[in-house]
Design goal:
Length: 488
Amino acid sequence: MNIPEVKLGIIAVSRDCFPIALSTQRRKNIVAAYGEGIYECPITVENEKDALAALADVQANGVNALVVFLGNFGPETPETILCQKFDGPTMYIAAAEGDGDMINGRGDAYCGVLNCSYNLGMRHLKAYIPEYPVGTAEECAAMIKEFVPIARAIIGVKSLKIITFGPRPQDFFACNAPIKGLYELGVEVEENSELDLLVSYKAHAGDVRIPEVIADMQAEMNGKIYPDLLERMAQFELTLLDWAEAHKGARKYVAFADKCWPAFPEQFGFEPCYVNSRLASRGIPVACEVDIYGALSEYIGACITGDAITLLDINNSVPKYIYDEDIAGKFPYDIKDTFMGFHCGNTPSCKMCGDCAVKYQLIQNRLLENGGTPDITRGTLEGDIAASDITFYRLQCDSEGNLRSYIAEGEVLPVATRSFGGIGVFAIPEMGRFYRHVLIQKRYPHHGAVAFAHCGKTLFEVLKYFGISDIAYNQPKSLPYATENPWA
């Protein structure tokens, strides 16, 4: 339960010089079109006292995401007070004409949204307004359904604590970013030493829950796991889960950003990747290399999709022989549209091909065990990532303390990587240009979050709500980047 449950409520508002029945009936029509899962406030708001009474009603009924519906022009002050005093994301939509005569049945909500937006701006209030916020009952119901994952992400981030272990690594300065941006979003941060984690891990030795976790790991991996590592990994999983519960404090949700090398395997006796993957599959991201903004990005994706996510390096180009053998003529991508996304083994098994297994970290084996028989460098979840639609994205704070983001939709191709780690062949239209004029030009780090669905539209709305003005994407050739050489 690390992802919020959205409890929707709808309040209709009415300008007192318009028939109140117009807003009330149109609200009822939306609720009927939406179906189960939305609370209908019986109070139609005409004045400030109505607004307070309606807020008390939705709060008493557990609503944590509010839809304010302009069934007619709407009362400007009361309708903005709803957003001002409601402790949660608020959406504004309005009624299209056509369900009554155009004399006594005209509502002018199309006009009312303009002054509603103006008043929200005057009060410096954040609200979600869809791309085209005026519609029939059925169209409004569809807009509200699109609001649900947006609201879930907003609620989650507002109540999130990111827990870190260890200093951000010196040779991965890309993971070193100002935490100022986190506080601006309302995210709490708790930074700890790796020693704190080690002490807690040792205290979990012999925990009575370890056999149950071992059994679950064995069932998940179907025997493709080192038997002698199971107790250590189960002990570590319980350590993280208990730490999360004990350190939530005033927050409801957690994500981790941990130092995973080189001291970790030497002191814990294994690599943490597989355990990290298991937590990610439950909506608790564990970002590698103390990548705080990577953890935040992952958590936003988990809230939006309600599904497992991962964090990968934008790692290496696809060799031409693989492109020629398995991609050219079979998929509509140039070789520059493709790349390999990789990490040591933190991608949940549910997003991997069926032959994935717990193995060892080849790079760390070279560093820590001189390339010999792996021991402490075991614990990664390795294999090719399964073919899927994906959204590659990241929210980042730059060196000036400004939040910025990118979003790119694409897919994991059903192409064997012939490589090691948790890895897949990714294809994103115009990736070559995006790589140069967004990722390099705007100085993004090598880590990107991956959602296993096309969710760019929802991500864009969430980031826009957070006030991110720079949201880059993979622009088509017909739309050059500002830094793109027109003669290239």
